[in-house]
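Tokens for Esterase. Go.
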Amino acid sequence: MKLDVFRQRKMKSVILIFLGWLIVNLIVLAFFDYQERKFILSKGVDPDRAYKFKIISRQVSVPGYSNPFPVKSRLLCPTERRHGGEYPLIVFLHGVGERGFDNVAQLKSLPQRLAAEDEQEKYPCFLLAPQCPPKMNWSSETVLIDSTSTAGKKTILLDLVYQLILDISAKHSIDTKRIYITGYSMGGHGTWSMLARYPDLFAAASPLCGGGDPKSVEKFSHLPLWVVHGDADQVIPVTESRKMVEALRMNGGRPEYRELPNVKHDCWSITYNQTDKMLEWLFKQKTN
């Protein structure tokens, strides 16, 4: 009898210890979840939408840095995929203000918009959002460490983006005839540069408030482009886009050009968030 009582007390003690351990861990997890959500919100991103993106990381070494470091990206997949169906891929290049290692800041504007359920119903797609490391730009020199095809070769950051596109296209149900690229500011420059480096990869592009080399447009003048710039931009002069558009037209191109009156550098808020015209146009484009 005494033995049974002892066993019951011991079992109760074990259960109480386990419940205490469980409660403490739940409190810790809740605290970390709260802190993470708070951090994501501080970057101007909805946490629930950020969690819809898969995390991708690639190691690179960079001249002037003693140790390799990761270049991080996020990948959004269509919410519901049809069996055997293929979906377009949008490559999104952010601006200077979203550089870093947090793998969150680059989700502002277009990425988090397309992560919303109603947007995925309207525009089901994959979206790749790489994050440029601090003190770099999309054309900074890098050495890709963990890439089988380019390991050890001197490249620029955009070549890593290209490699990511190839890898994602091989692993996911992506319609390779509907790969698009867009970006603003530094990402606008990156978009123009990416078109010059890989003109046959994309079905269409939309560079916003950026600029490039007008001599390079002969490589991609055949592509459908939707170019936007605010005429009051004091960060990157509107003449940068005007030069590219003029060069395209001189080479037989027919770009859609939107010069927004009295709009400063932030033309992407209008293009990405306040109108569907660009996206409606973009998703209609397809390579032959």
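The radius of gyration is 24 Å.
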